[in-house]
Specification:
284 residues, alpha/beta, Rossmann fold, 10 helices, globular
Length: 284
């Protein structure tokens, strides 16, 4: 609806020409803070485990289908590589399932250590899928992009968020997270990983933040962090900010051991009672 179609006068907050304009940007930014805050409080989400990774990694089922349909050497090689990568989808799914079952059995009414992703396909879908299969609520912080990104069907419907601003989405990732799991990924995964590492290293984030870097065969080829320590651009102790593993069992044991120390402490958010609501809303 353009300004010529509006019946004047109109309330400012109903004037989409203004809200969607440059002058209304501050209101749009604030809405991506205040609306998620309200909804998260409504469903009593205290804190999260964030899963990061590529949107391009398929499930084993999809990869095997692609392999069967591939024709020609190049296509077959590509399908074989995607089938190899699909293990990370399935292992993400398993880890999210186990973490969700574990968190559901914690004492108390708060929703603790809820699986959270960027809401899209690939590794994000796998984590939401695993949590859903464990019959747990889970979050998806989706971002509007012209390609790749669309919300996956496994996110708890009422906890699927759509962001326009990357920095507001990143805020919610960091603010709620009590642990990060980083699966193989591309530029987006690397950018999110290094941002979190920087916040933890510089103690801008002061809470304990276990970070799991999963998949040695992938990450060993992608970067050599030890070289940064050798050149003195980071301290050797900074290498310990990440826990590297290639096993679902090991990742699960590490995360539950680290997070157990946080169980008796308040979540990242205020308690639901502080909102003046007697009971949290149950997602459908």
């Amino acid at each position: 609806m353009g300004s010529d179609d509006i019946e004047w006068p109109i309330m400012a907050y109903k004037n989409l020409d203004f809200i969607e304009s440059r002058d209304g940007r501050a209101l749009r930014i604030m809405s991506e803070f205040m609306e998620p805050e309200s909804r998260l409080a409504r469903y009593n989400i205290q804190d999260t485990i964030v899963f990061m990774g590529s949107a391009r990694i398929p499930s084993e089922e999809q990869a095997r289908k692609e392999m069967a349909e591939a024709s020609g050497e190049t296509a077959i090689d590509r399908a074989a590589e995607r089938l190899k990568l699909s293990r990370y989808y399935e292992e993400t799914r398993q880890l999210a399932f186990r973490m969700t079952e574990w968190s559901k059995n914690l004492k108390g009414d708060d929703r603790r250590f809820v699986v959270c992703t960027g809401g899209g396909p690939g590794i994000m879908e796998a984590a939401n899928r695993g949590a859903s299969e464990a019959k747990g609520v889970n979050l998806g912080f989706n971002i509007s992009l012209p390609m790749e990104q669309h919300e996956n069907p496994y996110i708890t419907r009422q906890l699927c968020f759509e962001f326009h601003y990357f920095f507001m989405r990143k805020f919610w990732f960091a603010y709620l997270a009590k642990a990060i799991v980083v699966m193989p990924g591309g530029f987006g995964t690397l950018e999110e990983l290094f941002e979190i590492l920087t916040l933890v290293q510089t103690k801008v984030v002061t809470k304990k933040m276990p970070i799991v870097l999963y998949g040695d065969d992938y990450w060993d080829k992608v970067f050599n962090l030890e070289a940064l320590a050798e050149f003195g651009t980071i301290d050797t102790v900074d290498l310990d900010l990440m826990y590297r593993t290639n096993s679902v069992d090991d990742a699960f044991n590490f995360l539950t051991r680290e997070l157990t120390e946080s169980v008796d402490y308040p979540g990242a958010r205020r308690s639901f009672a502080d909102n003046g609501n007697a009971e949290p809303t149950e997602p459908e």
